[in-house]
Amino acid sequence: MDNTPTLLQIQDLDVVYNKVIIALSAVSIDVKQGEIVAVLGANGAGKTSLLKTISGLVRPSGGKIFLEGREITREKPNNILRGGIAHVPEGRMIVPHFSVRENLMIGAHTADKKTIQKNLDQIFALFPILRDRYSQTGGTLSGGEQQMLAIGRALMSNPQILLLDEPSLGLAPVVTDAVMELIRTINREQGITIMLVEQNAFIALETSDRAYVLENGRVAMSGKSAELMNNDELKTKYLAG
Fold first, then answer.
1. Pick the residue with more confidence: 185 or 91?
2. Confidence class of residue 241 from pLDDT cuts 50, 70 and 90?
3. 3-state class of 210 per DSSP?
4. 38 — phi, psi (to 5°)?
5. Residues 86, 80, 61: CA angle, nearest 5 degrees
6. Reading across the β-sheet that carries 210-215, which strands appear in turn?
7. CATH numeric code, 6-239
8. Would the pLDDT of 1 be above 60?
9. Domain boundaries, the chain
10. How do beta strands 6-17 and 62-67 pair?
11. Which burial class, exposed, middle or buried, applies to 173 when counting CB atoms under 10 A from its CB (0-12, 13-18, 19+)?
12. Where does 75-233 show beta strands of DSSP type E?
């Protein structure tokens, strides 16, 4: 029996836009402490809506969200961040005219000032290129470097759980492999739980421990990533070619 505590629990989550567009319907997901959990699905399946709702950027129409057993369903984004959930959005969303340092410090506004330098040192150990680019503006970085900066910015808040939305988007395969290895390192060496949204199902299953598949806003399938990799239905829909 697995006695690992559940860190994040999502119960029967509904998200409806403009009272007519159903983004999520009765979605239930558990994420245990120390896991990497992937969320797969085609464009429009509800993956980004799920992460935005967890981080407080979107208000759900129904259902509940718990962090370590405490309900956070209606809390404001800043309080959710302070509570330990950091969100790296799709497209990275760094500030292009801010320096690397300034972008990182955006993520530090909820952190204790005494820990800021410690956090910076850990981020530079993970991403040495960011130390080299410390004074360079974010918009001049490569796509892979911008993704590292976006993850580093999130890590500045000392999160318990990291929500990653399409971290491989727009990256060359070799850069994607490097970013996924860094994600595994963050999980393994820093003990940070990760919820990984990815359209690239193969990469997501290789990186994660367990996975959920969303279709039309509902959970269509879930299980251990290694087992889902061999699921015929999933292979036909998401791993073909």
1. 185
2. very low
3. strand
4. -95, 145
5. 110
6. 85-88, 161-165, 193-197, 36-40, 210-215, 218-224
7. 3.40.50.300
8. no
9. 6-239
10. antiparallel
11. exposed
12. 85-88, 161-165, 193-197, 210-215, 218-224
Rounded CA-CA distance 168/143 in Å is 10
CA distance 169 to 231: 25
Q: What percent of the chain has pLDDT over 90?
A: 58
Q: Does the pLDDT value for residue 204 go beyond 50?
A: yes
Residue 24 structure tokens:
């999520």
pTM: 0.91
For 187-197, the pLDDT digits (tens) are: 998 899 999 99
Beta carbons of 159 and 84 less than 8 angstroms apart: yes
Nearest Cα residue to 85 out of 28, 146, 157: 157
Count of Cβ atoms closer than 10 Å to residue 187 Cβ: 20
Closest listed residue to residue 159, CA positions, set 199, 202, 115, 219: 115
Altogether, the residues listed in the chain come to a count of 241
- The strand pairing partners of 194, in sequence order, are 36, 162
Strands 161-165 and 193-197: parallel
